[in-house]
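Exercise: predict the structure of this protein bound to S-adenosyl-L-homocysteine.
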Amino acid sequence: MRALDDSSYDAARETMVREQIVARGIREPRVIEAMRRAPRHLFIPPAERHRAYADAPVPIGEGQTISQPYIVALMTELVRPQPDDIALEIGTGSGYQAAVLAPLVKHVYTIELEATLSQRAATALREQKYDNITLRVGDGYAGWPEQAPFDIIMVTAAPEHVPQPLIDQLKPGGRLIVPVGPRFSVQQLQLLEKDAKGKVSTKTVSPVMFVPLRRD
Ligand code: SAH
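Solution:
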């Protein structure tokens, strides 16, 4: 398919927000606005860019994928971002989820195992002038102890169990969203919340399919 010009991408993004995000029940106005603003196509390699606003995950290189738009919006809504929140993302990938979350919180820390993807995401984020996202290459299983604790933790690759370091690095009142389950099969999206006393409750949200969280 031929490359689209900028205004075609803008129109495709508006349609995506209407048909995939609002129509399926995403209600939080700030999340809808963030989906309307983040230029998803600029986080996707040129060869796949024409599919940026399709209702599907898209390959981003290194065998990885950027999540379907609806899943990005759903996970963002479920962690209930607040302007003063400090967030951690595991699995930077293209940088798109970080770009959606960044305007809704104070700062986003994001970890990626693949250096190539992290560098590409850093470039896209810099070109788009995001100034409250810090990237790092490493194994996100261990979280980011130097910046902990976090109000929000979003895991965008699927572990077989919830990494204990991430639970430990969640603030009282914090929210952790994570797809949990077997590799390359259906996983369950889980929302963990830590109350003021440090007690953790878990809610299963819906079946999803993510690439596996790999270990170093
Ligand atoms: N949030 C991304 C999509 C992520 S796909 C986006 O918006 O584009 C999942 C990513 O997690 C992949 O890039 C993969 O390389 C990365 N990943 C897998 N295991 C990891 C680990 N242990 N630590 C950090 N990143 C990991």
